[in-house]
Design brief:
Elements (H helix, E strand, L loop, with lengths): L4 H10 L16 E5 L10 H10 L4 E4 L6 H7 L9 E11 L10 E7 L6 H27 L5 H10 L14 H10 L6 H9 L14 H10 L3 E4 L9 H9 L4 E6 L4 H13 L3 E5 L9 H6 L5 H10 L14
Parallel strand pairs: 1-2, 2-3, 5-6, 6-7
Antiparallel strand pairs: 3-4, 4-5
Helix pairs in contact: 6-7
The chain binds zinc ion (2 copies).
Length: 328
């Protein structure tokens, strides 16, 4: 089932940051530090994503599923053939920013780049996050039933047919996009966007608030697991410098400057903020796969090699590729 959840997510998050001149990639990006697979709310299997990214010319890829590193674990399990690119373990935590006003959905999304896959405390933290997702998912489905929009059959079908069969990441694969797809399947909504706007979005009748880590808790947890926390797709970084400064004091280490959907002015402005606050610049496609192939998404992505080389240096890791002459 396909819908345009990616564009919904993005339009609500960063509308005005997209309306200027688009970024024109000077050469195909060799780096993508923000992607999703079916282990959370993406459409591709982890290996399909890696294969598609490598085919598009990506040499360094971070798989950053929501609240789970299950996909990275699978891809790097012993006995698996070597991957066609450098894979960085990552995760995205949608932190609940209680008390911070004027935020989309009341959330700040924090990427944890290079987190340790074997850190038990971090895994326990992610498991709690996934538990909150399951609870929220059930509450929304209950509320829809009470409102006269039962989607229980569609949800059962979705669970049976999806990557949700992978036990460890069940919670991570549950979110409003999936419920929206079920509402479309049950003909209660015309599109995913329609379902979000009328029923599931913040302030709408079937909206149930998220529970889980706050931004500084997410930052601390990522740091404790050896990762670099980077604030994802926050187009307001320029206007809300004080907030970024506060997060930097709490341990934020990066800012997602080269986000695929940002226009050129937004990228330049965020680059300035990152330099001033000494935050690493990161970037990626935020590919989910609802409305496009990876190659289509990659065509408008520009993440400089330096985002990866700086990040790997900060993580104390060697990056042995990206040595080919850049096509500048
Ligand atoms: Zn996000
Ligand atoms: Zn994302």
């Amino acid at each position: 089932m396909r819908g345009d959840t990616g564009s919904f997510r993005y339009r609500r998050g960063a509308g005005k940051a997209t309306q200027g001149e688009p970024v024109v990639p000077p050469h195909p990006s060799r780096v993508d530090l923000h992607t999703h697979s079916r282990r959370s709310d993406g459409v591709l299997e982890p290996l399909e994503l890696v294969t598609a990214a490598a085919a598009a010319g990506v040499q360094v890829l971070a798989l950053s599923d929501h609240d789970t590193v299950a996909g990275v674990r699978e891809l790097t399990a012993s006995g698996r053939p070597p991957l066609p690119l450098e894979l960085l373990s990552a995760v995205e935590i949608n932190s609940v920013a209680t008390g911070i006003s004027r935020l989309w959905e009341g959330e700040l999304h924090i990427l944890g780049l290079g987190v340790d896959l074997h850190d038990e405390a971090f895994e326990a933290t992610l498991e709690r996050q996934r538990g909150f997702r399951v609870t929220r998912f059930r509450r929304i489905v209950d509320r829809l039933r009470q409102m006269g929009y039962p989607v229980d059959d569609q949800v059962d079908e979705y669970l049976a047919a999806s990557g949700a069969t992978v036990g460890a990441s069940l919670g991570a694969s549950l979110g409003r996009p999936q419920i929206a797809r079920c509402l479309v399947a049950a003909r209660y909504a015309s599109t995913v966007d329609d379902a979000m706007q009328r029923l599931l979005g913040r302030g709408r009748p079937a909206y149930v608030p998220r529970e889980g880590l706050g931004p500084t808790e997410a930052i601390s947890a990522i740091r404790a697991a050896g990762g670099l926390p980077s604030l994802a797709h926050f187009a307001d970084a320029l206007e809300r410098r004080e907030l970024i400064e506060e997060l930097a004091k709490a341990g934020l280490g990066g800012l997602e400057v080269h986000y695929r959907h940002f226009d050129a002015d937004t990228v330049a402005a965020l680059g300035e903020v990152a330099r001033e606050l000494r935050l690493a610049q990161t970037g990626g496609s935020d590919y989910h796969g609802d409305a496009e192939t990876y190659a289509e998404a990659h065509a408008s992505l520009y993440v400089p090699d330096e985002d990866a080389t700086n990040l790997f240096a900060l993580l104390g890791r060697r990056l042995t590729i990206l040595t080919g002459a850049a096509l500048r």
